[in-house]
Design goal:
The protein is α/β, with parallel strands linked by helices and 344 residues long. The chain has 8 helices and 16 strands. The protein binds flavin-adenine dinucleotide (FAD).
């Protein structure tokens, strides 16, 4: 019987497991992959993600993150180029998740897929690919993927996420936000050269590079000589942007990360939310707070960031009237940056 079983070693699960292990709790962190992997993500980390990483003894710059100082936005023929209102880094998810998983130490059990979980006595019985595990509490951190029997109730219609690493793209210290018909993309440098193109789509995928290029003159220029480094984009279906876990839930099952709230990509920071929710769940468990109380508190804490990120995503897609004016974009970026903070 483990005291806590954390399911999924992404940012949320790792943060919870590291904090619980450091507090002396007996915790197992179950991860289905054999090794750290690429996942669909823009790989943009801001100051809230950095603050949570510092709590866990990690630093995005020391991990090799490329510093980002500017944000460029293109829509049709219009574009803006403004200074980012906070420090930010571009760090591949394989590197970030690998560092977090290493920091989790002996709690991590790789290549263990959790197939189901049901209440038993005072705790939970987990069915896994490596046999059964009993735990008093579960932290559900499976990210975009629902655990069988535990769907995200009331989740909004899902979007599709795509990611492709590219050569032949020069981004310097800028991240670019590139709306196009049916979605929008983020493009930012990879630390060793080239760029990460990541997109959220609301319709059929089509040919990603061609669709993004067609969305704006800026995208056309940035991606003119782009060469995909992979055969095809990495894809994740079923991203329910806007989902928020209700202030309820069965006793002893704490949802964190994308299982607790799915913030719009590129205007909100999912990794920061994931890390902070994992830390908050660990605090709740250490304080003896029940899962429903934790969910209610996290719902309140993430409400503002979720609302503002949704508004900014809408503005980005709808192309604001004052778009051409860098001053308007800069002011909006500063406002959204201030209102989407999740660090305590
Ligand atoms: C298109 C797109 C772009 C994005 N861009 C950014 C960005 O630039 N910056 C940012 O901050 N956020 C971004 N996000 C959001 C970010 O990727 C997520 O919010 C974040 O990864 C959530 O972390 P998590 O730990 O909850 O889940 P995940 O990172 O998805 O991790 C879940 C883990 O659980 C494991 N797992 C799943 N099921 C099981 C199982 N049954 N048993 C065992 N293990 C299991 C998985 O292998 C994985 O390791 C983006 C998202 C999308 C879709």
């Amino acid at each position: 019987m483990a005291e806590v079983a954390v399911i999924g070693a992404g940012p949320a699960g790792c943060a919870a497991a590291i904090a619980l292990a450091r507090a002396g709790r007996e915790v197992v962190l179950l991860e289905r992959s054999q090794a750290p992997q690429e996942s669909v993500c823009g790989e943009f980390l801001g100051r809230d993600a950095a603050a949570a990483l510092h709590c866990l003894g990690l630093d995005p710059a020391a991990l090799g993150g490329a510093t980002l100082r500017r944000v460029r936005i293109g829509h049709g023929g219009r574009e803006a180029d403004v200074t980012l209102p906070f420090p930010a880094w571009a760090l591949p998810r394989r590197v970030l998740d690998g560092a977090l998983q290493a920091a989790a130490g002996p709690a991590l059990r790789r290549a263990v897929t959790v197939l189901g979980a049901g209440p038993e006595g005072e705790g939970w019985r987990l069915r896994t690919s490596a046999g059964e595990i009993l735990a008093r509490r579960i932290v559900l951190a499976t990210g975009k993927h629902a655990l069988r029997g535990h769907p995200r109730e009331g989740a909004p219609p899902p979007s599709l996420g795509l990611k492709l690493h590219l050569a032949g793209v020069e981004m310097a210290d800028a991240v670019a936000l590139l709306p196009f018909a049916g979605g929008y993309a983020g493009l930012q440098p990879l630390p060793g050269g080239g760029a990460n193109l990541c997109a959220a789509l609301h319709g059929p995928p089509g040919e990603l590079l061609a669709r993004v290029r067609a969305g704006s003159a800026l995208a056309g220029r940035l991606l003119r000589d782009a060469r995909p480094l992979w055969d095809r984009p990495l894809a994740v279906a079923g991203v329910p942007y806007g989902f928020r876990q209700a202030a309820s839930g069965p006793p002893g099952l704490y949802r964190v990360g994308d299982q607790a709230a799915v913030i719009p990509s590129f205007t909100g920071e999912g990794v920061a939310l994931a890390l902070h929710s994992g830390l908050a769940a660990a605090e709740a468990i250490l304080a003896g707070q029940e899962a429903a109380g934790f969910h209610a508190a996290w719902r309140r804490r993430s409400a503002g960031p979720m609302r503002w990120a949704a508004l900014a995503a809408w503005v980005l897609r709808a192309s604001p009237t004052g778009f051409a004016a860098a001053g308007a974009v800069g002011a909006l970026a500063r406002l959204v940056a201030a209102r989407t903070r999740v660090a305590a």
